[in-house]
Amino acid sequence: MIDASDDTLGGRLSAARDASGISQADLANRLGVRRETLTAWEADRAEPRSSRLIDIAGILGVSPMWLMTGNGLGPAVDDESLLLEAMRVELARLNELHRETGRLIDGLARQIERFESVRLRR
């Protein structure tokens, strides 16, 4: 069992999806939502409605309570390699978010520099 009591709803959703071997696109399709919606749920930028949580729990084989709180029936991890792969996928996702954050910071810094140079010329 994955211990996810300290994780977020999005983290638990991602972990359960990874443990079940279902892609984001497949899960989004089964739920009838856009992949971007599922991505936002997994990144904790949005939360699914309670009826969707029940659907997600059923598809992923976990309890809705586990998705919400980390307590209850979570995904079974029979093989350490599956857990390791889920962690690698999560690390890759975090690395991409880190790179995107860096790009956003650099862009904002350039905008500030441009604004300041225009302001100084006045």
TrEMBL record:
<dbReference type="Pfam" id="PF01381">
    <property type="entry name" value="HTH_3"/>
</dbReference>
<dbReference type="GO" id="GO:0003677">
    <property type="term" value="F:DNA binding"/>
</dbReference>
<protein>
    <submittedName>
        <fullName>Helix-turn-helix transcriptional regulator</fullName>
    </submittedName>
</protein>
<dbReference type="InterPro" id="IPR010982">
    <property type="entry name" value="Lambda_DNA-bd_dom_sf"/>
</dbReference>
<dbReference type="InterPro" id="IPR001387">
    <property type="entry name" value="Cro/C1-type_HTH"/>
</dbReference>
<feature type="domain" description="HTH cro/C1-type">
    <location>
        <begin position="13"/>
        <end position="67"/>
    </location>
</feature>
